[in-house]
Amino acid sequence: MNLPSAQAEANLTTSKTEVDNQLIAYLWSAMAEIYGSQWTNEYSEQPNGQWFMEIKKLTMPQIAQGIEQCKQSGSPYVPRLPQFLAYCGDGLTKEQRAFQARCKAGNEMKALPKPDADPEIRRTAISAIKKLLRGGI
Predict the structure, then answer these.
(1) What is the C-alpha to C-alpha distance for residues 31 and 134, in angstroms, rounded to an integer?
(2) Model's pTM, two decimal places?
(3) Does residue 85 sit within a domain?
(4) pLDDT at 66
(5) pLDDT at 24 over 50
(6) Range with lowest mean pLDDT among 1-10, 34-43, 70-79, 104-113
(7) 65-107: per-residue pLDDT in tens?
(8) Number of folded domains that form the chain
(9) CB burial class (10 A; 0-12, 13-18, 19+) of residue 101?
(10) What is the pLDDT, as a whole number, of residue 3?
(11) pLDDT attached to residue 11
(12) Residue 113 gets which letter from DSSP?
């Protein structure tokens, strides 16, 4: 059984770190282009530890989706980390997802059947309306 050598493990770690650094650099560059100085004023030229820790958990397609969702949101404000992470998923925040679930559940509820109209009640109601319109009480 061949176990990876310490050097091979170190190379894998270095490669993973390089990929993480490239992803972060790509994200920071893209967001600076989208939001301009507002991004760098808010988050500086380099990501802080929390952004770095969370972004390195994402794949490139997820980051690209997050960036696209930022553009599609129409918001002139830079996203906070939780909002950006939501954008990297399905584009919805936890609250928006809960709202959609409630709406979907509401649409699935069965309504009571509409009762059949009684022609006699309808005639009586129409007669009463006509009488009121003619000035009668």
Answers:
(1) 69
(2) 0.56
(3) yes
(4) 92
(5) yes
(6) 1-10
(7) 999 999 998 888 999 999 999 898 865 667 777 888 888 776 6
(8) 1
(9) exposed
(10) 46
(11) 46
(12) P
3-state secondary structure 46-108: CCCHHHHHHHCCCCHHHHHHHHHHHHHHCCCCCCCHHHHHHHHCCCCCHHHHHHHHHHHHHHH
pLDDT of residue 1: 44
Tokens at 83, concatenated: 């909002």
d(CA 108, CA 38): 44
Instruction: Determine, yes or no, domain membership for 52.
Output: yes
The reply to whether 131 falls in a domain is: no
And the tokens for 37?
A: 């100085």
For residues 6 and 16, give the distance between their C-alpha atoms in angstroms, rounded to a whole number.
15
The range of the structural domain enclosing residue 65 comes to 6-95
The per-residue pLDDT for 14 is 52
The amino acid present at 28, given as its one-letter code, is W
73 lies in some domain: yes
- Computed on alpha carbons and rounded to an integer, the radius of gyration of the chain in Å comes to 30
Residues 6 or more apart in contact with residue 26 via CB below 8 angstroms: 60, 63
Tokens of 97: 């997802």
Say if residues 55 and 27 touch (Cβ distance below 8 Å).
yes
